[in-house]
Description:
Layout: H1 2-25, H2 38-44, H3 46-63, H4 70-78, H5 85-122, H6 125-128, H7 137-143, E1 161-170, E2 173-186, E3 192-204, E4 226-227, E5 233-236, E6 242-248
Antiparallel strand pairs: 1-2, 1-6, 2-3, 3-4, 3-5
Helix pairs in contact: 1-3, 1-5
Amino acid sequence: MNIAIGALILLLLIFPGILFRFAFLSGPYSRKNFQSSLTDEVVLSLIPAFLIQTAAYFITDHILRINIDVSFLIRLVSQLNLITPSEFETIENSILLFSIYSIITCISGYLSGKLFRYLVAKYSWDIKYHSLRFNNEWYYLLSGRILDFPNNAGDSKNIDMVRVDVMSESQSGTIIYSGILREFYLSKNDGLDRIYLSNVYRRKLNDDSPGELSAPLEQEFDERYYKMPGDMFVIPYQQIKNINISYYVIEEDSV
């Protein structure tokens, strides 16, 4: 029982770091949580947990003037069997305060992870530092941020439209769906879950011509293409054989 209590307290101290990583890895397009085992995640969470607990200790001890006996806390985690009966009484009286402290640090860990993710994306730290890149490569491909990578020509900030040509199988044969990318969602296993397209045209693969694919504004006049009805067309990743991605910059004619 003593070992279990010590492990529980240790987990509560590390848990803000785990929430930090959860918030950092989970984006608006993603359902992704963790890609490694629980043991690996605990190890990777030690650094943010240490920073959060250090900041919380400084605020609690130096600003709020609430004295925290760190040596007692260490003994509580590592050598619970050496705690005296009078110290156990102190623990019982501090359970509520420690619970509030743990809740605040956990909330701080989650919010810090969200803030750090925002800063990484805003200032392109993930482009400059490989270790900060988000795990799913589809995010960079479909958002156009892959253009910002070193040795790639282009700038994702200049992209006005992303067009995709998707090859998919149907009962009548292989079909090409072409449309404007509106939204995409990533899966939990570093993959793509589904994409949302608008202004969608389809044609059979057998209708290929020696020339290039028709531009979005020209497909309406190409007899090979059939305009799909509806405002939004959803394609699950399981139905995608391959995908071609084009980034467009719309230039306005000067008058």
